[in-house]
């Protein structure tokens, strides 16, 4: 999520971070003064990151469950206060308008998504409310989010809550905090709360965790193989192309939602021609989400894929999540930006991926 936005920003939270050494550009914390060392810290220590590039929509009302069930790719009925869920919101052609993480409290549902998609998502979702007893509101100016990752993360967090979520997607609500366990090579947690509660937690955690800019957290998401749809990639991918069926972001038994027929047909016919890969490229220029990829050396070559997200690697160059034609990925060389651009080096998948849809 590299693209800033003009949507509602939690100024109180950003002022707090600025007072604590954050360097903020276009409403995003880019670093705490030493980006290179902060990236390296992700390899060796526990890091603490601001998640302001993620926006938050609250969904309330007695028809909330049915409303969300009819809109998103996953079975919302399986969500409870102790379990969050990845979801895709698709257009009628099955293309993802947004990627979301949905969690709930006792009374309300919350939608985490790229902040540069929040305004359009909120406006379009409201078009489907009609007579349903549902209210959708942007609460990004009231809530804030932080990420905590590293070997020592569970120990640090256990000093502030009595019970830790142990499995991926599990949630704990305690002391005004919503703590979500994420996948990753080392323990990772995403924590959301009202601003005042998060101020207190940040002050406590920063004494033993290294504060870092959002690019470091984005790199950890890339390493974990978790895609984020942003404004420049909206409507570019069917959920299976970004491995959402592997990640548990799609239910094939829940019933209808926008684009469901396309997503289901791809699944039951098993005709997946593109999927997401982890890759590395040696370049000084950070690629944009949505940038095209090409077969190496072919004159007037057509694009064989796109960048989903990219971030500088602690060890140099750039790490990326990319969606590629499977046939090209398995047989040919791939370049960034043009057929003569820097070559991609495909890495081991962070999780087992079935090339069937």
Automatic annotation (TrEMBL):
<feature type="domain" description="GCVT N-terminal">
    <location>
        <begin position="36"/>
        <end position="239"/>
    </location>
</feature>
<dbReference type="InterPro" id="IPR017703">
    <property type="entry name" value="YgfZ/GCV_T_CS"/>
</dbReference>
<dbReference type="InterPro" id="IPR029043">
    <property type="entry name" value="GcvT/YgfZ_C"/>
</dbReference>
<dbReference type="GO" id="GO:0016226">
    <property type="term" value="P:iron-sulfur cluster assembly"/>
</dbReference>
<protein>
    <submittedName>
        <fullName>tRNA-modifying protein YgfZ</fullName>
    </submittedName>
</protein>
<dbReference type="InterPro" id="IPR006222">
    <property type="entry name" value="GCVT_N"/>
</dbReference>
<dbReference type="Pfam" id="PF01571">
    <property type="entry name" value="GCV_T"/>
</dbReference>
<dbReference type="InterPro" id="IPR045179">
    <property type="entry name" value="YgfZ/GcvT"/>
</dbReference>
């Amino acid at each position: 999520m590299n693209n800033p936005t003009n949507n509602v920003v939690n100024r109180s939270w950003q002022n707090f971070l600025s007072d604590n050494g954050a360097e903020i550009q276009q409403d995003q914390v880019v670093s705490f003064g030493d980006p290179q060392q902060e990236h390296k810290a992700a390899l060796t220590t526990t890091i603490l990151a601001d998640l302001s590039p993620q926006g938050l929509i609250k969904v309330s009302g007695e028809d909330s469950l049915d409303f969300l069930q009819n809109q998103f790719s996953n079975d919302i009925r399986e969500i409870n206060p102790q379990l969050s869920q990845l979801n895709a919101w698709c257009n009628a052609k099955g293309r993802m308008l947004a990627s979301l993480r949905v969690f709930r409290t006792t009374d309300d549902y919350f939608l985490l998504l790229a902040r540069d998609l929040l305004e359009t998502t909120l406006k379009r979702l409201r078009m489907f409310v009609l007579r349903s007893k549902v209210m959708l509101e942007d609460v990004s100016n009231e809530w804030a989010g932080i990420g905590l990752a590293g070997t020592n993360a569970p120990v640090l967090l256990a000093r502030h809550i009595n019970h830790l979520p142990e499995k991926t997607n599990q949630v704990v609500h305690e002391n005004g905090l919503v703590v979500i366990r994420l996948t990753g090579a080392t323990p990772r947690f995403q924590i959301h709360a009202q601003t005042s509660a998060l101020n207190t937690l940040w002050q406590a955690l920063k004494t033993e965790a290294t504060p870092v800019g959002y690019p470091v957290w984005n790199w950890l998401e890339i390493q974990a193989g978790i895609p984020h749809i942003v404004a420049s990639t909206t409507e570019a991918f069917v959920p299976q192309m970004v491995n959402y069926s592997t990640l548990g972001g799609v239910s094939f038994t829940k019933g209808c939602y926008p684009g469901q027929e396309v997503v289901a047909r791809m699944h039951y016919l098993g005709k997946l021609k593109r999927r997401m890969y982890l890759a590395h490229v040696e370049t000084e220029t950070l690629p944009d989400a949505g940038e095209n990829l090409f077969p190496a050396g072919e004159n007037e070559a057509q694009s064989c894929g796109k960048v989903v997200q990219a971030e500088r690697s602690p060890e140099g160059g750039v790490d990326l999540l990319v969606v590629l034609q499977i046939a090209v990925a398995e047989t040919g060389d791939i370049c960034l930006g043009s057929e003569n651009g820097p070559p991609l080096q495909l890495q081991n998948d962070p999780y087992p991926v079935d090339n069937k849809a």
